[in-house]
Amino acid sequence: MPRIAVFSDLDGTLLDHSTYSWEPARPALERLKSNGIMLVLASSKTAAELVPLRSEMGFDHCPCIVENGAGIIAAGEEAGSEAIVHDALMNAVSQMPEALRQKFESFSDWGAEGIAEHTGLARDAAEAAGKRQFSEPGVWNGTDAELEDFIANLAEQEVHARHGGRYLTLSFGANKADRMKEIAGSADAEFTLALGDAPNDIEMIEAATHGVIIKNGHGNPMPELQGEADKRIIRTAKEGPAGWNDAVNHFLDHVENGQNWHKGVELG
Questions:
Q1: Global pTM?
Q2: Catalytic-residue membership of 124
Q3: How far apart are CA 179 and CA 42, in angstroms?
Q4: Per-residue pLDDT of the chain (268 residues; tens, 9 = 90+)
Q5: CATH class for domain 4-70+175-257?
Q6: Ranges assigned E (strand) in the chain
């Protein structure tokens, strides 16, 4: 078996959009484990949210990418309370002119109760989501012109602002694709497979040797990506973990047996 590393988004990809179950992906997950293949979970979730999932799936021996690439949790590392990077980030935010700072409301401003109210998460889940180590999500309540000034002020302190589906997230840079390259390089992986269903997965999917867009029936469809024309990137016909299971098994068949990557199963 060649050296392989699989990188996967969670919500809507490996986890069902509605139930958050990964059970339909169990056959492919077991196949990865039996072949000793690295699975790197790559999510917007914090370490406090992601590490228990990694353990539940049986991949404690693999690193994971947290907070949309702002940080990496090493193999076997527990979700700690170390927040040096986050403290530095929030210090930079505090240096903003007050007229701009007050227009940005974030997880640190809300606390667990506020996060639960804004996100719809249960209280314990909101508490875990608030344990930021590398980034700070929030909402912008000012004008577009004020936002430009806010982002420019942050850039002077090397803080990056990135729009997601719901939040404006601040960090010191790096995304899922950057972290994927870092981990794959350390593992000397010959093949990388990246799977995701949302715009914040695009860079990771395009940077992998093989990419999969998981069908998402709950949001806007992903635009056509670089690599789809030559079939380096394919789409699944099924949603969520069922599509994930098909795609990972198909990829392993391709690597192990020479099966054509873009033909042979109904992937869309």
A1: 0.90
A2: no
A3: 9
A4: 789 999 999 999 999 988 989 999 999 999 999 999 999 999 999 999 999 999 999 999 999 999 999 999 999 998 766 788 999 999 999 999 999 999 999 999 999 999 999 988 899 999 999 999 999 999 999 999 999 999 999 999 999 998 866 789 999 989 999 999 999 999 999 999 999 998 889 999 999 999 999 998 887 778 899 889 888 999 999 999 999 999 999 999 988 887 677 654 455 5
A5: alpha beta
A6: 4-8, 38-41, 64-66, 71-73, 104-106, 135-140, 160-163, 168-171, 191-196, 210-215, 233-239
CATH superfamily of 84-171: Putative mannosyl-3-phosphoglycerate phosphatase; domain 2 (3.30.980.20)
Q: How far apart (Å, rounded) are the C-alpha atoms in residues 242 and 250?
A: 12
Phi/psi zone of residue 121: left (φ > 0), alpha (ψ -120 to 50 degrees), beta?
beta
Q: What are phi and psi for residue 235, nearest 5 degrees?
A: -120, 150
Phi, psi of 216 (to 5 degrees): -125, 110
**Integer Cα distance of 28 and 117 in angstroms:** 36
DSSP, collapsed to helix, strand or coil, labels residue 260 as coil
* CA 215 – CA 241 distance, rounded (Å): 10
Domain ranges (residues) in the chain = 4-70+175-257, 84-171
CB of 197 within 8 A of CB of 216? yes
- Both tokens of residue 238? 């099924």
Choosing from 9, 16, 197, 201, the catalytic residue is: 9
Cα separation, 258 vs 237, whole angstroms: 22
162: tokens are 């990135």
